[in-house]
Structures are given as structure tokens and as C-alpha cells.
Amino acid sequence: MDKQRFRLAEYFGKPAQYYHATFDHITHKINRQHQKIPVILLTDVYLVDSQDKKIRLANKNDFIDVKGKHIIADHLWVKLTKPWLELPQELLQGDEIFFLANVEQYKITRVDTITKRNQIWDAMIKKNKKIEASWNYYTKHHYRKNFMTSLQKMRAKQQENIAEAKKLQMQIKLVDYSLNHICKIHVVLLKKVKKNFQRETYNYVRFKKQRYKYSAWLAARTMAYIENSNMKERMIK
Known about the structure:
It is a single chain. By secondary structure, the protein is an alpha+beta fold. The chain folds into two domains: 6-108 and 176-236, no CATH class; 118-171. The protein has helices at 82-85, 111-141, 147-171, 204-210, 212-236, and strands at residues 17-30, 36-48, 63-64, 70-71, 73-79, 96-107, 175-189. The strands form two sheets. A five-stranded antiparallel beta sheet has the order 5-2-1-6-7. The chain has a two-stranded antiparallel ribbon with strand order 3-4. A hairpin with a 5-residue loop joins strand 1 and strand 2. Helix 2 runs antiparallel to helix 3.
């Protein structure tokens, strides 16, 4: 589990909550059926009530954003669904919304996460082999008065290392959390659009008919807006 989304686990299986987030862009992910699914990147997600008033979180290990707010996730990928496309205007990077959603759990198949778990186990095996090699070397060159007792202590130490490795592996969860069943989306802030860009109106009927063709067009627009903004910033600098 990403350390910046661990607080979502507390709300898994519980009633839907309201969340405030910043819209970034639309893209696509490939699902298990090899279909392209449109998804939205949301950043700086924090808990709010039904009036968009922030619910304070104050755990010592909370993740804090650049504004000093205790957030529940620094970023999330959520599905582009009907409620999003029923908004009156197109969302672009920096726009802020709040909405009602449930927490969903999903399995992690990322290579880096699995590698970390394997590294813990490999390190334990290497450590136990070193312990046994040292014990064997000493036994070969020195007389052990209490041979069996010494052997049992060595094996017990190896078992401690195994138990510790399993404990550390369990801390690296092979599940992560996101938000699903998003509804009651409210636009809080629409940033002023660049002069050479105009917001479009979402069209859910068109999405139903064209699917990927329409969502790809929306995704391309959100990325073009970001690239255009970045280019202007570079020119100013």
C-alpha cells in the first residue's frame, strides 16, 4: 500500500464519505480484459463534510501537502463515469471539486512492491546462512561442551529472523485503496482558462456512443492544456 494512501484503509467497508480533490488530467489504463478504461488523476484529496468543510485529521504519520493540510491521499486514480460527464463544464488541471464516494480495495501487481517483499526474504535467508556458517566454523575448530543446547539456540535465532522477515513483509501490503461509486460531484473552483483555450461541455450521450474515441479526445485535451501551460511557464522564465 502506498504510504500516502494508508488512511483510506480506515474507511474501507464503511459508509460513503465526502472528499475534496484537485483535478489533474484524464488518461486511460488497460484492465484485465485488455480494454482501455478512462481514468482521472486527482491530487491532494482530503475529507470534508457535505458542505465541503474540511474534517481535521491529526495523526502523527499523516501525509501533509504543500499547504500544510493533512490529506488522505496525495493522488488517486478514479474511473471516468457518468457523474463526471454530467458536470456543466469540462474540468482542467487545477480545478477543485468535492464529491461523495466509497473506498475500494484492489490488489497490487506492481513489480517494485513484490520486489521489496522478496528482498526482505532474501536478506533473511542470507543472514541465516551466515549465522549457520559461523556456528559450523566455530564447532569445527572448537569443542562445544553443550553441543545440542548451542545448536538449538542457533536454530531459535534463525526462527526469530524468519518471524521478523514475515512481519516486515506483512507491512508491505499487496493491496492498495482508491475511491469508487463517485457521485454528487460539486465544482468548488474553476481556474481561469488560458486565453487560447476554451472549456468544452461534457456530453455523456456521445460518450455512450463513441466510448474510447470520445474519452481519448477528452484525455488529449486535458494533456494539451497542461503542456500548453508548461510551455508558457518556460517562456516566462
